[in-house]
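Human:
Class, as today's exercise, you are to examine the entry below, and be ready to discuss the fold:
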Amino acid sequence: MCIRDRVINKTIANSLFVLYYLLIYKPQLVKESFGGTQPNVNQFKVATIRIVIPPLEEQVRIVSYLNEKTCKIDARVSLLSKKRDAYQRLKKALISRVITKGLNPNAKLKPFGVDWIGEIPEGWEVRRIKEIGTLKLGKMLSEKPIPGYKLCKYLKSKNIGHLHLNLDSVEEMYFSEEEMNQLMLHKDDLLLSEGGEVGKTAIWNEELEECGIQNSVHKLTTFKGFSPNYYRYYSYMLSDNGYYKSIVNLVSIMHLTYEKLRRVVVLAPPLPEQQSIASYLDEKCSEIDANITNLEKQIEKYKELKRALISEVVTGKRRV
């Protein structure tokens, strides 16, 4: 990309040098940006940034050095990112295959009737979510104190991740005794996001005491004979392949309603097979996640190295 040199405060400045210099301030500018889906950087703040400009020859030398070094770092980040993405695809493919075909590669198969699932093992049944457990939608937000109600923690859509919970920030609201009986979470309850990114699914392992759900979250308590962990992975598959999005209203904000969710078709292998599949996926996904985490740490290390290199060179702390 060719960028014309500009004159700044009567000093000839190489545009790429200025660009590298401004990158030092990028984290702070992003932090102070404003707007919703497309945040804007305050142009007046950018205009007031003071830049120490070395002689033009030195600027050109700095730009040449940084172009060479940062291109090498970017190439390494790109390679690591591709490896991470490959592991993520592997995880999705593994879950989809095992959830719909089981662990026995020699199992006899029968038609299922849905193209993207194909055939399923003989002996597996087909059910709807309403047949495998009790489904409850959370309550509307109630922040004001109400006589006789109890202040409790609650989860909303942002607390539900793909196969995991996000509990860094958990808010509180008031629940009646009846609401507590219906909406408090118990071990092995499945949690599905009703709004936002619909269908994100996690399992409750009593991470917090007395925690309920807001009406952006469904709670599915499976009946005896159905493994909640198997259906956690099954629901993840439905979310990943876009099935949940295909059944919601796309005209406004997406909502996976109670009526639509309870009619969703699911597979029902024999319970021991459900449990074996879930245990297998726990082990394999844990291994894949560890590799993904390791790659993401390496990516961040190289990005930090790039930021530090640019900062040291454009400010003169490292001479080139």
